[in-house]
Task: structure prediction
Amino acid sequence: MTEPVPPTRRNRASLTYKLRYAAKNPDKIRPYLARTARDLKLRVTSRDHVAYYRAVMRADAAKSPEAAVGSPTRERWLRLGKMQFDYLVKHGLKPDDRMLEIGCGNLRAGWRFIDYLDSGNYYGIDISPDILLAAQDTLVRQELAGKLPHLTLVNDLTLRFLPSDHFSVVHAHSVFSHSPLSVIDECLANVGRVLVPGGFFDFTFDRTEGAEHHVLREDFYYRTETLTSLAERHGFTARFMDDWEALPHGQSKIRVTNPA
Ligand SMILES: C[S@@+](CC[C@H](N)C(=O)[O-])C[C@H]1O[C@@H](n2cnc3c(N)ncnc32)[C@H](O)[C@@H]1O
Result:
């Protein structure tokens, strides 16, 4: 009998993987074909990856904002947000931190950060107008307008409209898992400027220990060394967060720290 392939060695883009998966999950074939058709259409009609992914979010958020950020039920949306929040508080987030959340979505974790941080200290950015409208609904539902959070639509990750040496914490959950390397490179090239000396940036990514690959233009798999060495080239120290691995979440986490 052949050994099962560990998750981090799977290549979801390979034909063998797809055929095996289809045989085991026949109910997933139709949704996959629909996503493939959408992928083909959006590749042709979108000028770049951001436009492509914005269109994906538009379609997904119209069905359910919770599902669009990756949580099929409200209960899982709450649980996943709490997991991010608890981890970050355990790893140094303080109420007086000034926080930038990249790809804040509909504030799955963001509303907890806003509630915890001093007023005005949360800044969320996203490429999707549709999910930012859903983020406003979350703010209203959680009665957090008084904390004066900032929510801003962006077209890229140059962060050029934000001040230098301002944020002590930057957070991006399940964003680089949907990003080609050029987008991650742009982010790492610019985030150091807005971070204070000694400030840190935590991000999750879909990790592979095999070949780097992507599924459609939606899910991207990277080796840890690719991202840590990219961060080091941009002047950060980078640390793989081992204890995140123990949590029930499919992605891995890296913390990059600005020189003090
Ligand atoms: C899977 S959702 C996660 C949202 C949020 N971080 C959370 O944990 O609920 C990914 C989010 O990142 C946003 N996004 C994707 N690429 C982005 C980019 N290059 N810049 C900013 N936001 C991006 C998407 O629009 C979406 O809202």
Q: What stands out?
A: Residues 29-45 form the longest helix (17 residues). The mean pLDDT is 95. Residues 123 and 150 are 5 Å apart (CA to CA).
